[in-house]
Every structure is written in C-alpha cells, then in structure tokens.
Request: fold
Amino acid sequence: VQLQACGGGLVQAGGSLRLSCAASGRTVSTYDMGWFRQAPGKEREFVAALNRRGGSAYYADSVKGRFTISRDNAKNTVYLQMNSLKPEDTAVYYCATGDGNYDYWGQGTLVTVSS
Reply:
C-alpha cells in the first residue's frame, strides 16, 4: 500500500489549499482514510477522517467549518480542502489509511501559512 500526498505550499492567512492523497494497493472507499498534521515541536494530531462505513466525516474542533475531507473513488484519491487558513495550521500534513487503526501513512506534505 502506498499513499502519495501532495498539494502543500505557502499561502497567506485566509487563503485556501487542497491536499490530495492518491492511494495504490488499497481502495479508499473500503477503508478509513484520515488526515493528520504535525507542527514543528509538537506531536502529530488528528485533523479529519472519512469513515468507510457510510462515509461519515469527522473533524478536529480546530478545523471544523474550515476544512472538508472528501474522496474520489474513480481516482482512488482522498482530498482535504482547507479554507480560511490560519498561521496555526502550519504543519506537515499526512494522509493515512486503516481498518480501525491507521496502518499505512503517506510521506507528508508541508503547509505553511504566513500571517
């Protein structure tokens, strides 16, 4: 299983970015898919997840209302649309997949939000 995350970059506060996570070796519609992030000097934290059972979405309180997780089954890709970005959203963002526990992780993509 491989996850290829991309879409990070430098953006001003208030701006938007869309992260993509292309999966191979696993079908995104049949496994839990999640986004996590790790800011400098901090522990990795949960951002958003898409449940394989019914496709329910879950978000960290810090991103609720600003970020949206979605998937394109035809492309076997999961997205994270990030709007109204804040400097505190600066981090390396990782996508992950699992069945109850996340057992495969992508390499991460850096998001930097300038004030």
